[in-house]
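Researcher: Next entry in the queue.
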Amino acid sequence: MSTSVNSSTSPLMAKTGMAGLVSGLDTDSLVESLTSSNRGKIEKQQQNIQRLEWKQESYRNISKALKEFQSKYLDVLSATNFRSASLYNTIKASTTSSKLSVSATSGAVAGTIKIANVQQLATRQTISGTEGVSKPLTGNVDVTNSGLLDGISGDVSKSFLLKLDGKVRTVTLDAAFAAAAAGSDGFEKAMQDKIDSIFGKKSDNSPIVEVSLTLEGKLGFSSGGSQLTVNALNGDTETLAKLGFTEGQTDRLTTTKSLADLRSSLGVALDGDDFNFSINGKDFSFKSTDTLAAVMSKVNSSGAGVTMAYSSITDKISLTASETGSGENINIAQTTGNLMESLGLLGGKSSTEYGQNAELEINGIAVVRSSNNIEVNGVKIELKEKTAIGEELVINMSTDTTDLKENIKNFVTDYNNLLDMMNGLVKEKADKAFTPLTEAQKSEMSEKEVENWEKKAKSGLLQNDNAVRTITAKMQSMIYGSAVKGGINLFSMGITSTGYTENGKLKIDEEKLQTALETRGDEIKDLFTTENTGLANQLNSIIDSAAKTSGAKGSRGSLIELAGYESTLSSTENRITETITRTNKDIAKLKEMLKKQETHYWSKFSALETALQRLNVQGSMIASFGSDS
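Model: Structure for this entry, 629 residues:
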């Protein structure tokens, strides 16, 4: 709602001079009376603004009701869109099997479909590495000769941190460990026992974290499907170095790191700083400063028809085709650098698992499809599982008009409510005895009295309003006149007018409607959905012509051009708001004139008071002369 100037004029806008101190005149009342004409003009303009704001609110309420009806019954995104042919599909598909999901389209017909011998489902082609893409968590020194155990005694130990999937534990190398490592079992056995005491073992008594020692004495940790990370305890990087590890060394990739930072972590060395390749004809270019996450995101959003992902469980990067079915659905070409090889997607360390087609029998006929989503006789079928030998999955298609009948009944009810609202407003009589209150009048009334007064003052604002009557006339004319050439109309469906006394509302003969739905379904669909002439399409056009908020000024709906709509550009770009703005400017001019007029009269009365004061002084002087003589 537009902001307006609604404050009433004060009793006096300009007070300059004496207020009847000498004359005894009620100057305030005299000035107010002399300026009453201009004061009345201001109040009349303020009342006009109030009426305009009330009318604007009424128009906007109508627009809102029209748009809500349109959104529910005529919008392409609505489940009850009467412009969509699918709404009129009375064939329902069903199956008792969990190995399928089914839904009927508008092309479905009553009957059955039998699915059997689903030998295989359609799958997607996948390329991934034959082994983990990261380097194993292995040290770079001979721990048996690095001096690691030097200095360890009864009260002196060395420690480091080992993290397993976020679970951090302190590994303390104490005197008992040093003795075991130097014994016959050796360092590897001593470290395995230490790690087992910290992380435990699996149900089969095998280690959760496995310890290894190469022939060169290099220490390694591994845990299938889990990430391991070593860190220094309290900054003790010396112990970490003697173990052969660096701070934060891990056996999994951190995708948020740049490719340059991942060089030392990749099993296949990454060469250069520029990487160019293509996937299914889509070209990609990256720098070593780009993160692995950025590479995957760009590939996935490129439309190349693949999904690129990293699994911390397998430590592998994979490319999976978007399309299912057999054949070469992923083609990689590398032109600069070796990023694809480093990630295990090209070369000797890559492995391809080709997709396969779905193979099944439909009504006894062998069928091969590249997708698990197929359509048969207007029924959409999604294959979810293979069938057992001799198993038959039955899909039943039967007529069910329940939903469509309920939608039509709701449509008629809401259409009637819409007509009721608009016709009620244009037929409501105005009570001219009740005009918008001024602020001064409101101040003398209770809150309830003001509420009751304004309720009456708002009545009949849209009495015989041409803009609203035009909309209802179009709607009624279209509803009664719509029919498919040589086909059905609303009367044939059991939907008729209640007559003039009820403002042209519709009523339903449910038995006749049921018969029409069961026997003339296609004609009913055409009645509502035929392009341009279909009832629903015509009704949508009528509502657009009244309540469309999009587009530039001058191209919007009639009610929107007149009164605007909240939260759109039209809220200020409309004729009523423009009139209110002009009227407020007129009020401002009238107030300025009033102030000048009051100033003029005050100056006259002030001059009178001054003159009378002088006469009084002179009279006193003359009287004093007479007494002296």
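Model: Confidence is low (pLDDT under 50) at residues 1-8.
Researcher: Noted, moving on.
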